[in-house]
Inverse folding.
C-alpha cells in the first residue's frame, strides 16, 4: 500500500514515519512504556493521529535528531514538540539534575566535565545533603580515594584524618556525631558496624 505522503511503503519506511509510529506506540499502545507514558497521561494530540498532519507540522526529521517534548510532563502536540539532538533530549529528561553556582545553571554532567569531578561524586554529595556551592567547590581528596570525605555527613564540620591499621582514612562523622550515633544505636540495641562503609 503506497500512501500519498510517500513515507510508508511496503519495502521501506522513512525516518520521519518511524518516529511518528514509535511515538504512537509509546503513548497509546505500548505496555513496555506504560509507567513512563500511559500512566502519566502522556498522549498524542488528535491532530497527530494522522501522519500527514504530523508531517505538515513537524516537517521531515533532520539527520541525527529525534522528537522531543519541550515540557516533558505534557503530551505530543505541535506546540510542545521539536526535533532535538540526543544530548538536548538527555538534558530535558525529568530525572536530570540541575545545579547552580554564581548565577550559572547547568546539568550535573556538564558541571562534572567542567570541574573535573566525577558525576557519581557530585550525585553522592547532593544525596548526602551538600549545598550546590559545597558540592561544586570542594575538591575531592584524591589521597583517600573513594573514602576521602572532608566534612561530617551530619553536621558538615571539617573532619580529621585518622591513622588506622592498613593506612589512613577519613571517617564519615565527626567525633561528636559519631558518639551520638553510637548512643542511638545502643539504645535501639543495634550493633555498631563502624563509622565507615
Amino acid at each position: 500500500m503506497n500512501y500519498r505522503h510517500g513515507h510508508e511503503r511496503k519495502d521501506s519506511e522513512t525516518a520521519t514515519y518511524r518516529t511518528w509510529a514509535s511515538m504512537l506506540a509509546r503513548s497509546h499502545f505500548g505496555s513496555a512504556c506504560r509507567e513512563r507514558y500511559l500512566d502519566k497521561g502522556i498522549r498524542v494530540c488528535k491532530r497527530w493521529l494522522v501522519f500527514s498532519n504530523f508531517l505538515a507540522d513537524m516537517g521531515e526529521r533532520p539527520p541525527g535528531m529525534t522528537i522531543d517534548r519541550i515540557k516533558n510532563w505534557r503530551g505530543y502536540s505541535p506546540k510542545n514538540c521539536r526535533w532535538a539532538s540526543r544530548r538536548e533530549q538527555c538534558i530535558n529528561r525529568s530525572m536530570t539534575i540541575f545545579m547552580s553556582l554564581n548565577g550559572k545553571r547547568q546539568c550535573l554532567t556538564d558541571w562534572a566535565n567542567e570541574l573535573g569531578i566525577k558525576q557519581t561524586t557530585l550525585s553522592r554529595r547532593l544525596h548526602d545533603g551538600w549545598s550546590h556551592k559545597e558540592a561544586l567547590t570542594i575538591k575531592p581528596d584524591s589521597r583517600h580515594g573513594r573514602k576521602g570525605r572532608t566534612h561530617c555527613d551530619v553536621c558538615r564540620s571539617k573532619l580529621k584524618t585518622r591513622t588506622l591499621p592498613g593506612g589512613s582514612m577519613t571517617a564519615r562523622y565527626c567525633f561528636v556525631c559519631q558518639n551520638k550515633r553510637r548512643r542511638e544505636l545502643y539504645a535501639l540495641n543495634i550493633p555498631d558496624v563502624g563509622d565507615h562503609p
